[in-house]
Amino acid sequence: MGDTLRRGIRLNLAVKYTVIVLGVILVSSGYTYLNGESPKRVSVSDLKVQITTDKNVYYTGDEINATVWFINTSHKPVYIDPITSFPFNGNYVNDTSPVGGEVILDYAYPNSKIIIPAEGKIAFWDYNFQANNVGTFTLNCFGASTSVKVEAADTGG
Fold first, then answer.
1. How many helices (H) and strands (E) are present in the chain, helices listed first?
2. Cβ of 34: how many Cβ atoms within 10 Å?
3. Are 68 and 129 in contact (CB under 8 A)?
């Protein structure tokens, strides 16, 4: 993870945990959905995963906020078990040294479930990284990817 910090990715754990607490419904086993229907257990591979950023173009030195979304395209609510770790990686075009790391998550209630409403989505993970290099930066997580453009900051000189 030290190499990750040197290459420009800075994880913001406080933001990640805030999104997990606010954006994900965690409930104990035996939960029944509001309409009386119990959610079906699925895996992340059964969901659509999307990565969004707060802008498409950044300048060197900017903080880039990205969010990983889990999208349930079915007409019924689903749940997944808590995810305790997962890899992410990213790279600039023509850069042979991608950045990446293993994200470790702790849950206050480890027997909880992550509920995704029918035809709904949740923000699973939110993080910030520093844009240090000029070029196109692509981030990958759970098989989804997104790219942003990083331009040189105007130094006023």
1. 2, 12
2. 7
3. no
**CATH for 67:** 2.60.40.10
Print pLDDT tens along the chain (157 aa): 333 333 333 343 433 443 444 344 444 344 455 556 789 999 999 999 999 999 999 999 998 888 999 999 999 999 999 888 888 877 777 776 667 678 888 877 777 888 999 999 999 988 887 788 899 988 989 999 999 999 999 876 5
Q: Are 148 and 56 in contact (CB under 8 A)?
A: yes
Q: What is the pTM of this model?
A: 0.75
Of 57, 49, 55, 52, nearest to 136 by C-alpha is 57
- Strands (E) in 85-143, as ranges, are 85-92, 99-104, 113-116, 121-130, 135-141
Cβ neighbors of 78 (< 8 A, separation 6 or more) are: 39, 40, 41, 42, 46, 47, 72, 115, 116
Is 156 a domain residue?
A: no
Give a yes or no: residue 157 inside a domain. Answer: no
